[in-house]
Amino acid sequence: MGQMRLNDVVAEIIGDVMAGDAVNKRQAAVKRWDDIDADGQYLAGIDGVVTRIDQRARSLKLKAEKSAAPEQAVLPFQLPAAVAMDIDGTTLVATRKLSRAEFERAIEIRRLQIANDQHALREWRTALRQADKFWADHPDWSFGKCLDAIMREAWPGRTHCEVLS
């Protein structure tokens, strides 16, 4: 059992990524597990179980029950068997058990998630358009080199950007 806090081990692994290393998250977790103190291992274990619950809940879909009648119609929609009732996805409820108000809340949460994803996608596309100006002349550049060029163009004298948490 290690002596390091979970957040410190995670920060070191992310530091490796930020330094330019490609990191397999699972391998890094296994390699560094013994460095983490007991509290951190407990929390990481809980987080791992929560992640598995979330993955399983997303993979299960509502299906029409089979009957003796082969002509039974398939549902005209596809929904998960369980949905999150908060934006963080902490509280799961079986879709079959939702009241109308809860169903509307689930729709609103999904709408917010999609809006956040659309915003992130717009940011990625904007970044690609900006970088393409430099990749056209330097196809071998990394995005980091393009980013530095974007910064120099927009703010002369500023050489690179910061990573924010």
Can you characterise this structure?
The chain starts with 5 loop residues before the first helix and ends in an 11-residue tail after the last helix. Strand 1 and strand 2 form a beta hairpin. Strands 1-2 form a two-stranded antiparallel ribbon. With 165 residues, it is mainly α. It has helices at residues 6-18, 25-32, 38-59, 100-135, 143-154, and strands spanning 82-84, 92-94. It is built from five helices and two strands, in the order αααββαα.
List the defining traits of the structure above.
single chain; 165 residues; mainly alpha; two-stranded antiparallel sheet
Rg computed from alpha carbons, rounded to a whole number of angstroms: 23 Å
Strand order, main sheet: write it out: 1-2
Structural class call reads: mainly alpha
- Low-confidence stretches are none
Note the run of SSEs as H and E: HHHEEHH
| SS field, number of helical segments | 5
Mean pLDDT over the full residue set? 88
Shape: flat
- Tell me about the biggest sheet? 2 strands, antiparallel
Tell me the distance between the termini: 28 Å
Total DSSP E strands = 2
Strand content is: under 5%
Helix content: 55-70%
List the helices and strands and how they pair.
Blueprint: H1 6-18, H2 25-32, H3 38-59, E1 82-84, E2 92-94, H4 100-135, H5 143-154
Helix pairs in contact: 4-5
Summarize the structure.
The protein is mainly α.
